[in-house]
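Dock coenzyme A; give full complex structure.
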Amino acid sequence: MILKIKSETILKMSRYEIITPNKNAVLSLQTKRLVLSVYKPSAALAVADYLIRNRDFHKRYSQRQKEKYFTEKEQKSYLKFDLKQFRENTQVGFWIATIDDQNRIIGRLSFYSLIGGCMNSCFVGYHLDQQEQGKGYMKEALLASCDFMFKYYRLHRIEADILPTNERSIACVTSCGFTKMGYNVKFMEIDGRYQDHVMFVKLNPEVENVT
Ligand SMILES: CC(C)(COP(=O)(O)OP(=O)(O)OC[C@H]1O[C@@H](n2cnc3c(N)ncnc32)[C@H](O)[C@@H]1OP(=O)(O)O)[C@@H](O)C(=O)NCCC(=O)NCCS
């Protein structure tokens, strides 16, 4: 019975609609409370503003960045690169806003290193505004966007690698149907050091066999 309620909740929260993107975006999904958009370089100021606001909060979970990373100019180049990768089908990098305030970015959710062939898989990474923690926003965004990636990119597998101490992130992926699959030693550079990560995976329930 508990399992049934849990899967019904996941189904409800994973609902999204593809909506007409605003002038700064090329793709937008709308969930119950959020809009997830792949932006054009013209959104660089809003992106830089979000990164500056959260610089200290994100530091211990992110790659070490140079000072210029937090400028509009640098974010414009990152957005150009993101758009190129989006067009080449190798990355889908969403920026998150609430429906009520679409000009203020409150998070990032990126599906990267998309590979096809016999793998059909990718990695996912994400972070949220410090002011917006614990409201269920990342869960809502992750559930909807994983469904989108499974449906429109026909992915078989999405991997999230998380620091063993990041309880909040582990709770978030577990709650979104990811399963712990392993432990990657010195996997990724975080805050200036290659650190161990716990590997979580979500498999597409609808892609069992290749047809
Ligand atoms: C990880 C992060 C994105 C989670 O975002 P969030 O919006 O606070 O998470 P949600 O509110 O959607 O919560 C998701 C789940 O985690 C649980 N959770 C929330 N806060 C928690 C906490 N402090 N401790 C443990 N679990 C917690 C929630 O209860 C929820 O599970 P449930 O629906 O089964 O109850 C956010 O904390 C963040 O940006 N952290 C800094 C950057 C980061 O760690 N990125 C990930 C790197 S792998």
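Observed: The pocket of coenzyme A is lined by residues 58, 61, 126-128, 133-139, 162, 166-169, 171-172, 175 (CB under 6 Å).
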